[in-house]
Amino acid sequence: MRRQSNNPEDNLLEKLREAIKEYDEEESKRLTDLALGQGIDPLEILDTTITPLLRSMGESFEKGEVYLVELMAVARAVEASMRTLQPVLEKSAQEPKYLGKVVIGTIEGDIHDIGKNIVASLLRAAGFKVFDLGKDVPLNKFLEAAKKENADILGVSALLTTTMQKQRDLIGMLRDSGMRGRVSVMIGGAPSSEDWAEEIGADGYAPDAAEAANLAKRLISARRKER
Amino acid sequence: MKYGVKGGQYKVLSRGEVKTAHEAVLEILEEIGIKISHNETLRLLDKAGAKIDYRDKIAKIPSHLVEDCLKKTPESVRISGRNPENDLMLKGSNAFFGMGSGPSYVLDLGSGEARPGTKKDVADAAKIGDALPNIDFVMGFCFPSDVEASVTGLHEVDAMANNTEKPMLVYGYHGKDVTKDIIRIGNLIQGGLDQLKRRPIFTLYLEPASPLVFEEKYVDALLEFAKAGLPVVWTPGLGIGATSPITLAGTAIQATAESLGGNIITQLTNPGAPFICGGCSLTFDMRTTVYSYGAAEKAIADCMIAQLAHYHRIPMFGTGGVTDSKVVDGQAVGEAAESMLLATMAGQNLIHDSGYIDAGAGASFEMIVICDELAARTARVLRKTPLTVENLAVDVIKEAGIGGNFLGLKHTRDWFRREHLLTDLFDRKPRESWRRKGARNLSDRARDTAKWIIETHQANLVPGDVQKEISQVISKAQRRELARK
């Protein structure tokens, strides 16, 4: 139910919410700039407007009420807003409450990246800081990035039955370098499966992007509990 | 030599629309271009008149070059089996049916569970394809997970060659060197490169990455077969709305542009080399992100691709007998039947993927058996019997008489086997007879047939001395590839 507010701040954030829902990237950016210009706290914008909207879109997607094309469009509008918010958050010593850090990429030898891109988008939208290494990513680059960014989660995508074998190799490399305990590994891509994840010792597998975001959240809480 | 089932009855585009679509294909190649990560090929295209951006590796191909290459491309392509009776003449709208390759899991014939594919599965499936009368060509069936990954294709070839005498299509998993090994094995079996060229038992099957990206490894593989004058399939698999436009026409023209890009490279390398175009349109499901094989609209987009192939006068690699179902149920048979019939009616020439389930993630022996039956039905439905006095049968109606009966007549005996398609697999017994025979359903019966073929069927083996040399090629290749790691 839309609450009629006399508070101009609320109305501005309400307009931002509408802009995102209407997939208007330009308007989302403009209103975010405006909101910041009027002194509204960037964390408040995140917490009251962006995060709840994303959560409800995610739920609607899982229920089959909205489709991927709509989810992607919302994610892009959110990214437009975040591009403005992020630098402000980083400057203002306020640590944005990222849910966690994810390094993601399509494995060496494989240039399929649509699924991986959708996952990266949804993870960002869900509040993760995502370092997208792109496609055809050499195994040691995954390792270096995970180390450098102090990643919580490593997301590895492979779409070919030949390249998916490298997911196994990567986990081996993590073990050999002593990093295995520090990062949770999730795998995806059409030829992967729950069984494959178990076989190679990954921490999780998700069959689609929405599940991937949920899996990432579960892996993060599991890590928190361990600490 | 087989000449296939005559298709082409289904047309989505009018003659004028085909021409318009063709112009749009030319525009893609000339204005947008293709990224080809292969310097030798970029230079080849440059010399032939294409506009090359060497930094971004993009080749923009002018229409005169596209059309020159089409003129050089053979209109008919012969692909061969070890037994010449199994050779296929690909031309025009004549259709042949065959298997697929690549799925990572197989439905176990014993337990029904999904489990990783093995080299034995490739061998068993090749036997099934070899034994069934309406399967015309054989492919790997599944990804054999129990062999060295860098030479998967060679193990597929090994398993297929010993279990079928029908034409084999090999997926180009690997680059230049392993592709050379495939040719080496072909030479060994046929007795030399000239013999292999004349009767090619292997056709290489390659895919560009949509949209508009040719990777180095696959161009290398294409060049090996092109230089050797051996047939190649260069076919994109497009996700409608993800890696190609959401509109079916947009998908069809992008597919054709990507496919023709492969033809241009082939013809410039070896003018007149046999080339098979293609395009497999897959609905990118906006709910599940699965590239769907069973979607209704697939037939429409693939038909447009076929119409463009006919316009260009080159044979086309198509898809039929496929499903998104995870099991062999009503959805599987419904989607397989529809896709096979429409692919044939569209005039696609090599209709592959019989045996695919779960949008190509899985492989089922039962589905190959069922698809054989579907192919027989398709062939029967599309077979045109010319109208003659004999088959109008007015005299026969007189003979039977008013209130009479046709069962005992010679005319009925003479024509019955031609007119009625007799099938075992799709059951027509009365309920009580069916119940007494065990009340078995279609997938049970298909499973029985698959098991029986695996147990009893054996193609002529490759001669022992040749097999020894093939095994040596494979072990040498394996050592070489492992040393690279």
Describe this structure in words.
Chain A has 227 residues and is α/β, with parallel strands linked by helices. Chain A is built from nine helices and five strands, in the order ααααβαβαβαβαβα. Chain A has helices at residues 8-21, 25-37, 42-63, 68-91, 114-126, 139-148, 165-176, 194-200, 209-226, and strands at 101-106, 129-132, 153-157, 184-188, 204-205. A five-stranded parallel beta sheet of chain A has the order 2-1-3-4-5, with helices on both faces. In chain A, strand 3 (153-157), helix 7 (165-176) and strand 4 form a beta-alpha-beta unit. In chain A, helix 4 (68-91) crosses helix 5 (114-126). The N and C termini of chain A lie far apart (41 Å). Chain B is α/β, with parallel strands linked by helices and 485 residues long. Chain B is 47% helix and 15% strand. Chain B has 18 helices and 21 strands. In chain B, the strands form five sheets. In chain B, strands 1-7-19-18-15-13-11-10 form an eight-stranded mixed beta sheet. In chain B, strands 3-4-2-12 form a four-stranded mixed beta sheet. In chain B, helix 11 (330-345) packs across helix 12. Chain B is globular.
Layout: helices, strands, pairs:
The complex is a heterodimer of chains A (227) and B (485).
Chain A: H1 8-21, H2 25-37, H3 42-63, H4 68-91, E1 101-106, H5 114-126, E2 129-132, H6 139-148, E3 153-157, H7 165-176, E4 184-188, H8 194-200, E5 204-205, H9 209-226
Parallel strand pairs in A: 1-2, 1-3, 3-4, 4-5
Helix pairs in contact in A: 1-2, 1-3, 2-4, 3-4, 4-5, 5-9, 6-7
Chain B: E1 5-6, H1 15-32, E2 34-36, H2 39-47, E3 51-53, E4 58-60, H3 63-72, E5 77-79, E6 88-90, E7 94-99, E8 105-107, E9 114-116, H4 119-131, H5 152-161, E10 168-171, H6 176-190, H7 193-198, E11 202-206, E12 213-214, H8 216-228, E13 232-234, E14 237-240, H9 248-269, E15 275-278, E16 280-284, E17 291-292, H10 298-312, E18 316-319, H11 330-345, E19 350-354, E20 356-357, E21 362-363, H12 365-382, H13 389-392, H14 394-400, H15 410-419, H16 431-436, H17 442-456, H18 464-484
Parallel strand pairs in B: 2-12, 7-19, 8-21, 10-11, 11-13, 13-15, 14-16, 15-18, 18-19
Antiparallel strand pairs in B: 1-7, 2-4, 3-4, 5-6, 8-9, 16-17, 20-21
Helix pairs in contact in B: 1-9, 1-10, 3-9, 4-5, 6-8, 6-18, 8-9, 9-10, 11-12, 12-17
